Amino acid sequence: MADNLPAEFDVVVVGTGLPESIIAAACARSGQRVLHVDSRNYYGGNWASFSFSGLLSWIKENQEKSENSDECEDWKKLILENEEVISLNKKDKTIEHVEAFCFGDQDSAKDVEEAGALPKLPVFGASGAEGVAQDPNKECPPLDSAVARAESCEPEKAASVDTASTVEENDTEVNCENEGSPSVSSSESALDLGKAEAAPSEVSAQEPKKIMYSQIVREGRRFNIDLVSKLLYSRGLLIDLLIKSNVSRYAEFKNATRILAFREGKVEQVPCSRADVFNSRQLTMVEKRMLMKFLTFCLDYEQHPDEFQDYKNSTFAQFLRTRKLTPSLQHFILHSIAMVSETDCSTVEGLQATRKFLQCLGRYGNTPFLFPLYGQGEIPQCFCRMCAVFGGIYCLRHSVQCLVVDKESGRCKAIIDHFGQRISANYFIVEDSYLSESVCRNVCYRQISRAVLITDQSVLKTDSEQQVSILTVPPVDLGQPAVCVIELCSSTMTCMKDTYLVHLTCPSTKTAREDLEPVVQKLFHLNTEAEKETENEELEKPRVLWAVYFNMRDSSGIDRNSYSNLPSNVYVCSGPDSALGNDCAVKQAETIFQEMFPTEEFCPPPPNPEDIIYDEDELASEESGLSNSPETKPEPSSEESSSRGTVVCNPKVLRTMSLKCSQY
């Protein structure tokens, strides 16, 4: 397979996270020859999403932390006398303290097979474990023969893979779903799902339907579980980039429907738009006028510096107390609109966050946020697809042994892969997790605490079950971080029907379980053997069926000079940060691209397929290499299919296929 790769490229990208994928797409769009490799067997790195069985495999691999032993040692012979090497990590060390628990009914799952799972095949360089070791007191049934291992890059898609454009210019509609209407196209499974979700709840006041663990295993491909939990601001940098580059045609989005607050031990909905404020029954008429007056001020606060100039050195929470707002309004603004820290956020930062929230309202719905169907992990794959369309070559399960550096110039000349092939390039993009400890010895990393729950009810019941909600839980003690909770319904195509997928995120102070379990206990019911006297109270809370906790490295905001002996033509991309949006990744990608190619436009719009003129020889060679006729629906591209061994995409085939798909 290594012989199929050219020996020279313009740009080599190691890692398939969001910033690396954006850079690769931008480079390919500007005409550069791009090689994009990743030692993992899935796209996205720590931005990826998994089916349930895929997540169990991911958990097992991160708990074992085993090193690959099947490596070629002949690569050292390729190093010349005037060259030195910078070794790269072979194993991802960015995930720690992984703990998984099953709180659902633990009926036997030994003979349960995942619906639609592919047969198991030998996997190059990957462990073959399917089960996941868990807490002995709350252990899930063993899955040695229960779950056929499914690759995370192959979630079951009830809708068609290549959807129509869903985020367009301001004068065009976005395909965001209203409450209660699942976004799927016509297929058998999608129709069944839509009928089930559209049906009115007949037992809303009764105990919800019990979900067995075997059902979760069987419907595992209905789940698309993100490693990182984020939403897209409707006027944020990522949405603007998706529109500008036309990458939005590869994805579909759903509008977040509710902004929630946790106050005095209860979850309640926050009115944020003008219509919501005046229709709210939570606020008095005086509070409505006070809130609207303050929000109007925040939209153009820079025009009234005299109103906040004296509080520049104060926190935003202290500034709110001077605005004659009631405690409930202060809570709503601080935790649900600005979504900032009570102790660390300055007045100006709080006003900026509030204005950003308000400016994003109304573009695609009553909230500022969009969520991509099938999960956040779709976004890196969308940019990977764009890169492949413009000639980029992708290789999964393709690890890199080292960077080859010229001693005289100090510039990186090449990489050497695990096949022992030397590949030269002018620029190299490397994800932070691939850098060795010797390069990162002066780097101080932060950590993110993450939890993912599968629950049987929403944290706030309403007439519609199809709600996408965001909730910020304030810290119990000052100085502790607030916890961001995102609850996804089945119409987001991230979980099976009658369940919800809940993501919890905060900056780490301890292990993820220690940071987040107190919040989980406040919002959810964990013990299935509740005492009778507390049973009615506990039934009001959603029941956790399954949960996983883990800490993820936050490598954002690290200065380039912190890395030791890094060649000038090697650029480092960070992993996910703890922020709700994706602005950090987009800014980083654009900055690196402009440093490499200052005269090129960053991700310009692609040409209209009707305007492309093919050379006769090129067109003939492409047609001869395609087995599909123009009337036949093309097969999914390589980045959509499962990754067995090293995957090398044929750019000409992908280019033709993409031009066809874009016309549907």
From TrEMBL:
<dbReference type="GO" id="GO:0005092">
    <property type="term" value="F:GDP-dissociation inhibitor activity"/>
</dbReference>
<comment type="function">
    <text>Substrate-binding subunit (component A) of the Rab geranylgeranyltransferase (GGTase) complex. Binds unprenylated Rab proteins and presents the substrate peptide to the catalytic component B. The component A is thought to be regenerated by transferring its prenylated Rab back to the donor membrane.</text>
</comment>
<protein>
    <recommendedName>
        <fullName>Rab proteins geranylgeranyltransferase component A</fullName>
    </recommendedName>
</protein>
<comment type="similarity">
    <text>Belongs to the Rab GDI family.</text>
</comment>
<dbReference type="GO" id="GO:0005096">
    <property type="term" value="F:GTPase activator activity"/>
</dbReference>
<dbReference type="InterPro" id="IPR054420">
    <property type="entry name" value="RAE1_2_domI_C"/>
</dbReference>
<dbReference type="GO" id="GO:0005829">
    <property type="term" value="C:cytosol"/>
</dbReference>
<dbReference type="InterPro" id="IPR001738">
    <property type="entry name" value="Rab_escort"/>
</dbReference>
<dbReference type="Pfam" id="PF00996">
    <property type="entry name" value="GDI"/>
</dbReference>
<dbReference type="InterPro" id="IPR036188">
    <property type="entry name" value="FAD/NAD-bd_sf"/>
</dbReference>
<feature type="region of interest" description="Disordered">
    <location>
        <begin position="154"/>
        <end position="202"/>
    </location>
</feature>
<feature type="region of interest" description="Disordered">
    <location>
        <begin position="604"/>
        <end position="648"/>
    </location>
</feature>
<feature type="compositionally biased region" description="Acidic residues">
    <location>
        <begin position="612"/>
        <end position="621"/>
    </location>
</feature>
<feature type="domain" description="RAE1/2">
    <location>
        <begin position="448"/>
        <end position="578"/>
    </location>
</feature>
<dbReference type="GO" id="GO:0005968">
    <property type="term" value="C:Rab-protein geranylgeranyltransferase complex"/>
</dbReference>
<dbReference type="GO" id="GO:0016192">
    <property type="term" value="P:vesicle-mediated transport"/>
</dbReference>
<keyword id="KW-0343">GTPase activation</keyword>
<dbReference type="GO" id="GO:0007264">
    <property type="term" value="P:small GTPase-mediated signal transduction"/>
</dbReference>
<dbReference type="InterPro" id="IPR018203">
    <property type="entry name" value="GDP_dissociation_inhibitor"/>
</dbReference>
<dbReference type="GO" id="GO:0006886">
    <property type="term" value="P:intracellular protein transport"/>
</dbReference>
<keyword id="KW-0963">Cytoplasm</keyword>
<dbReference type="Pfam" id="PF22603">
    <property type="entry name" value="RAE1_2_domI_C"/>
</dbReference>
<dbReference type="GO" id="GO:0005634">
    <property type="term" value="C:nucleus"/>
</dbReference>
